[in-house]
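Order emerges. One example.
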Amino acid sequence: RATMKSLRFISAEAFVSNAEFARKSLRGVAHNLFPLLFKASYLLEQGEVIHDLVENWPLVDFNMGKLLGTTVDCQEDLSHRTCSVCLESCLTGLRDYVLNHPSPYVKRLKVVDLTGIKDVEVQFCECKKTMGRWARTQLLSELCLELLVCLQQTQCNPSTFEISIDVLIDLFVTERNYELVAQALLKKCYCPLKICCVAFRSDNLALQKFFYIIKLTDPSLLRKLEIVHNVRLEMEHLEILFNSMHFPLLMSLTLPARTFNVRRFTATDERMLTNIGEKMGEMTQLTELSISFSILTGRIQKLLSPLKTPLKMLDVSNCSLNHADMAYLANSFHANHLEALDLSGHNIPDLYPSIFFKLLSHSSSVLRSLTLEDCNIQDTHVNMLILALSPCQKLQEFKFLGNPLSSQALKHLFTFLCELPMLKNVEFPVPRDCYPIGITYPIDDASLCRFDHQKYESVAEELKLILLQANREDVKASTPLFGSYDAAVQETNNELGAYLIKSFKETLEKFTTSLNKMS
């Protein structure tokens, strides 16, 4: 793919393309050329050159997002390339920066920022091997512990012990890498590379371990906290978390399914929910909240009204919201600031069509992403939906999988979607007429793939033709049957699967034991 490159960048590519020559010549390279050579090496996947550049880094900071992003010399953004060769070379180079005694440069490096790396579905690197967030967490932890062993075993230059480099990273911890990461965080004060956790994601982890490791990360520095799959955090645990730790910089919070369940609420639970809302109100930076698959009927106001900063992203999918909840959202100060909204799993057309109109009209000037999956939107509702979406001229992403819409209705909707100038991504359902007659919605996983694939392909082509004829080739339209790509789940799906099988086995064993006792 052609991309704009300056003569300087082309020269840098030529220089690093001969790895042996480049490595020998680094001593004579001006300091201000290191960032240019780093990006050129990354583009060409010259692992050895990347290692040596980082090992001899002469500058005060090393920011991956800035180094790999769009620059004057090379407009191509490489920050979404999580190339295994490049990233491993980069991190081992960082370890050797600490251990390298005869470096010709004064060691000035103070901050390494790895948070600008973006994990995406399609990789353009030649090696096609990626190093995701979990693997980056694993490798950095390994290298920190390795460094400590090296410093203890070898005769190090005394100045080595004075090196202190903050390494900003988004950590991803599961049962499988928990011990390693916990050890690295526990010994952080003795290691020249200081792991500074900016964002933390946890999957497949026992609650006790989650509480221990979150304390080790230093919650006062956290900007993003994601507690996602198979962490059995319920409301009482969330209250303990918020009462025992402070998150002054937290901007984004994702809670696991079933954190809240108002159907079995007692007076104590009501007080607990009020306290959690108040604690969230103290997080003055909080602008993103995901609480999907909790039962929050009639309690959204209690949870969100204490917030002092308006939310820009809200995911309340499958939260069993009622009319009062939707009315609160539509009339709250959050509505005018919502850039991303997920209302999936709610029967919007039947339960609260007018309130939905109001909510979208209030957020229309800023709304960029809207998800309405499994919302029972049928052919008779398409004109209403078009009317509601018309003011949303900044909408970039619209996802509406799982709705019982016919091919004809989808064509009508796509003709309108062509008019939204900023739209880039659409996720649409398999048309209802591609499924056998009598299919019920929401469709269960077993029936999801049982549709006429040939007919679907034909309809998908017609929809793409509508985009093409409107000169909207820039819009990507797709039907990811099992939901959007999740880099974290993709990277740890084997562990996730094993955990689910283990949980199922334990449940069966308990059930069998109960039956035996009864008999």
Q: What stands out?
A: The CA atoms of residues 202 and 227 lie 5 Å apart. The chain has a mean pLDDT of 93. The chain is about 45% helix and 10% strand.
